[in-house]
Every structure is written in structure tokens, then in C-alpha cells.
Design a protein that fits this description.
alpha+beta, 4-stranded mixed sheet, 119 residues
């Protein structure tokens, strides 16, 4: 099984999700998205795999997002994905992708990753 985790090592949920993956003997590809933000096209693909609009990948508690306010059209997936490319701190985390099957989950709570590990 080939997994990729969009990971923030400072986030306890992200660390726990990574731990669950590793406990299953899987060495995922780790993307430190704060230092290597996903391109807008990648974010659009992540949202598609998750079955959600891109705006669902926003962390409402992030100051950068609050500062953007109404200037960010949350109904425009391309605009939100482009904005996230420049403001990766506002991306929900962690996102885990099953690269073999084109499926993804958000590791909030971390046990959500078990859905990918079971199938």
C-alpha cells in the first residue's frame, strides 16, 4: 500500500495519524505541506478524492483565513485552491492519500486513517 500524508509535524493529530500508519508497517511518503505546499491542481485533486468542495479543506481557526475574509470566494474551488497554495497554514491536516486507489481521508480524528488501511 502506497500512502502519502500531508503532514505538519507540530500538529498532534498529524503526528498520531502518522503513528497509526507506521504501526501498520507502512512507510508513507511524507509531505511537509508548510514547506512544500501542494499546487492548486493537487489541492483540487485532494478535494475530489475526499468528495468535498475545496472550501472544506480550510481551517477556519487560522488567522490568515480570517484576514482574507470575504475577499476569498469559498464557492470557487479554483480560487480557494490557488489561495491555499499561497497560504498552506490554512489547509486542513493531516490529509492521507491512498495513492494506489485514488482515495483520501482527513485524519481528524486520527482513527479516520483506518478506513484506508482496512480496504
Amino acid at each position: 500500500m502506497n500512502l502519502t500524508i500531508y503532514h505538519n509535524p507540530r500538529c498532534s493529530k498529524s503526528r498520531r495519524t502518522l503513528q497509526i500508519i507506521e504501526e501498520h508497517g507502512i512507510r508513507p511518503t511524507i509531505v511537509d505541506y508548510l514547506h512544500d505546499p501542494p499546487a492548486a491542481a493537487t489541492t483540487l485533486e485532494l478535494a475530489r478524492m475526499l468528495g468535498v468542495p475545496v472550501a472544506s479543506l480550510l481551517r477556519d481557526s487560522e488567522e490568515e483565513l480570517r484576514a482574507a475574509g470575504a475577499a476569498l470566494d469559498r464557492g470557487d474551488d479554483q480560487a480557494v485552491a490557488t489561495w491555499l497554495e499561497q497560504h498552506p497554514r490554512a489547509l486542513e491536516r493531516p490529509i492521507v492519500v491512498d495513492d494506489d486507489r485514488g482515495r483520501a481521508v482527513i485524519g481528524r480524528p486520527p482513527d479516520n486513517v483506518r478506513m484506508l488501511l482496512r480496504s
